[in-house]
Amino acid sequence: MAMIKPLRDELRKFVGVEKQCAVSLIVLLEEGFANQKKNFIRIKDALKAAREEVEKRNLERDLALKMREQFKRFEEEIDFHAGGGTFVAFIAEDDITTFQLPFTSNEKVVVDTTYEVRDLIFALNRLTAYWVLKLSLKDTRLYFGFEDKLFEDTDFFMPSYDNAFTERRKEYGSLYRSHIGGYDQEKKETETKKLYFKRIAEKVEEILEETPTIPLFVMGTEKNIGYFRNATKLGKQVAAEIPGNYEFLSTGEVGKLVWPEVQQWVAQRRRQFVKTELEEAFKEKRVATGIEEVWKAAVEQRIYILGVERGFIQPAAVSKENPYELVLGDNAPEGYEQHKDLVDDIIEAALQKKDSEVVFVNPDDLKDYGRIVAITHW
Fold first, then answer.
1. Residue 138 shares a structural domain with residue 63
2. Cβ atoms within 10 A of the Cβ of 204, count?
3. Are 110 and 162 in a shared domain?
4. pLDDT tens, 205-251?
5. Residue 47 sits in a domain of what CATH number?
6. Which of 128, 140, 152, 166 has CA 20 to 30 A from 178's CA?
7. Are 246 and 299 part of one and the same domain?
8. Domain encompassing residue 337
């Protein structure tokens, strides 16, 4: 499962890429193994529609043959998992790339010279993303969440308790294998647990290094959470601790348990930004308000925390000669480049820096500031 930053970066690679023939298949998938056959048919139907559309284009013979070969190759290699979401395929004369995105999007079959990727990035940027760590002596697991959907991050392997025991035994030698010198069973187990959760903490810190503004929710028994808390350097990135014995819960069960905690944290983070952080930033004169000022801060890469009202969209045109000059609306004058949604471009600019954060607030929370505001680095 690709976490949010690599996923966003991978999608960005397709923005503005031009091909002789670029086909975008965007298909909604139903969750669960029982729906696998139905999902396969939906993808095949989208492929059929793409084939028919390409045939209508009367492409040059060589290009038409290449696209037929690519369609055949894609059909033979269709692959997706039972997690649902959105299946995306970008098919061109020289490339086939597929994604299974953990959110829903509008279904489309588009044949053009560029890929239909901007709306996917737009949707991804506005999701609530979070990490979940389920602590266990037998099987610690790391998950990544988008809204109420949770996915196990199988790209990383957690350290094992057995390895921690072996490491500790090598350190103490024969003393560790006996009761000599007071090394009784309880003390051995405590020291092994401390080392185990230290190694877990180190691994999690390594994984989360690229996403320092995405919160982590930690689950496990109170003792295990205590070991992890004492070992980790993540500090405020740990948004909440959820004590209990969750060792045998499935991914779906963990997701249902954690989502209310995430919603509570999001509401608290929203209040903290609007009521506290924004007020302090105004005193320090580190605030940009309204679309024009915030766009300027984005161009200058000064955004530290971006606040945006949910649902706020602003089409605008940007001067090709001077990026600070804007014309709001859908009709770009000559010499200007039209942006479908400048808010999304500002979000993209803010997220280029890993320590920048985007906070989505309720409608009217920022009505006095033009519905968008940025706390800046300077």
1. no
2. 24
3. no
4. 998 998 899 999 999 999 999 999 999 999 999 999 999 999 999 99
5. 3.30.960.10
6. 140
7. no
8. 284-376
User: Which runs of consecutive H residues, i.e. helices, occur in 209-300?
Assistant: 222-231, 251-272, 278-283, 290-299
Residue 294, exposed/middle/buried by CB under 10 A (0-12, 13-18, 19+)? buried
Please report how many Cα atoms fall inside a 13 Å half-sphere around the Cα of residue 141, on the Cβ side. Answer: 16
pLDDT in tens, 310-362: 999 999 999 999 999 999 999 999 999 999 999 999 998 998 888 899 999 99
Of the residues 121, 145, 166, the one at which a domain ends: 121
- Give CA–CA dist 311/362, Å, rounded: 9
- Strand ranges in the chain using DSSP code E only, listed in sequence order: 22-29, 85-92, 95-101, 108-112, 129-134, 141-146, 149-152, 216-220, 238-243, 287-289, 303-309, 316-319, 326-328, 336-339, 357-361, 372-376
> In which element (H, E) is residue 182 found?
none
Closest CA to 370 of 304, 284, 308: 308
